[in-house]
Design goal:
3 helices, START-like_dom_sf, Alpha-D-Glucose-1,6-Bisphosphate, Chain A, domain 4, 151 residues, 40% strand, 7-stranded antiparallel sheet, ASHA1/2-like_C, Activator of Hsp90 ATPase homologue 1/2-like C-terminal domain-containing protein
Length: 151
Amino acid sequence: MKELKYDFYVGGTPEQVWESLISPEMVKQIYYGSVIRSSFQIGERFEYVGPGAEGPETLHVFGTLLELTPQKALRFTHKVGPSYLKGGENHESRISWLLEPVGGCTKLTLLHDEWHPDDPSYGPSDNAWPQIMSNIKTLVETGRTLDFGSF
């Protein structure tokens, strides 16, 4: 499978965009009520937990934190939570958030790669990332997120 890569330009500083990726209040708005659970220590578990099929504490995504360079890079492995598996194997991929100042804005790149050819989360990820990135851009620039309807 090919890597998923998206570049967005956000009308905010790298500091503001970085906060949208790690701040509990902002992450909750961007990821439909889910929050990050992590010690933010390299090599330790990294999770997105929130409302879903298993109730308010549904594990949506988990992995291992690979890199944390404030205002520059956040990288972690990616596996989906049990409610997404439907009896299938849980394959690992990798997510990289990369930030770069460009003039008075920030270039935010999402790279989701290292896919297993049989990973069923590829299609749903490809559909979800543009919405999540649009939410980040809108939240940083306006203080609110977009209304995509219910999921």
